[in-house]
Amino acid sequence: MSTIDVDLLKPDLVLLDFEADDRLDFFRRLAERLKSAGYVKETWLEAILEREKDYPTGLECTAISVALPHVDPIHLLRPYIAIVKPSHPLEFDGMADTGLVNAQLIVNLGVMAHEESQVAVLQAFLGIFIDDEASADIMAQTTPEAMIATVKKYCA
Q1: Interior CA angle at 94 toward 45 and 113, to 5°?
Q2: Residue 2 — very low, low, confident or very high, per pLDDT cuts 50/70/90?
Q3: Residue-range domains of the chain with CATH
Q4: Where in the numbering of this chain does the PTS EIIA type-2 domain appear (predicted)?
Q5: pLDDT confidence bin for 84, thresholds 50/70/90
Q6: What is the pairing mode between strands 80-86 and 9-18?
Q7: What are the residue ranges of helices labelled H in the chain?
Q8: In the prediction, which pLDDT does 123 show?
Q9: Burial readout 122-136 (b: 16 or more C-beta within 10 A, e: otherwise)
Q10: Are 68 and 59 in contact, with CB atoms under 8 Å apart?
């Protein structure tokens, strides 16, 4: 059984060709979207920026560079998973001081669960992204519905 709750994957949270100048602009624009859709509290933006500074989430895999930002559930109104393919790669600091990562895909986890469950979801996505074929398949998707179907395919 998958550790990713695929019911959290919604077309309105699959953002393709997402325009952002840099990481800060990305988080500001995503915060606006998530707040207006009723997913996050006003505290989300500051919390995710602080967490990203303390615990960077960029990851360079062989076929794809990703970022997996997330915050503590206290900043959420309801759970979600946002999958964002920016119009151009965005610079994120790498996990474990691995340098800068130009993220081609950003998966923002809004998981309302215990820390162990959040780690399990992160590990499940990492398992997808270390698979070159799965990564290429995900990056080839051009509609929110196709992106969701593809992610679900690799979660099974």
Answers
A1: 50
A2: low
A3: 6-155 (3.40.930.10)
A4: 7-154
A5: very high
A6: parallel
A7: 23-36, 44-54, 115-129, 132-139, 144-155
A8: 84
A9: beebbebbebeebbe
A10: yes
SS3 15: strand
Q: How far apart are CA 86 and CA 47, in angstroms?
A: 21
Average of per-residue pLDDT across 5-32: 96
56-to-65, 71, 95 alpha-carbon distances in Å: 13, 12, 5
Instruction: Give the contacts of 33 (CB within 8 A, at least 6 positions apart).
Output: 15
Phi-psi category of residue 110: left, alpha or beta, with phi > 0 → left and psi -120 to 50 → alpha = beta
114 has pLDDT over 60: no
The token duo for 145 is 């519905």
SS3 of residue 51 by DSSP: helix
> Over the stretch 137-147, which tens digit does the pLDDT of each residue have?
999 999 999 99
The Cα 29–Cα 35 span in angstroms is 10
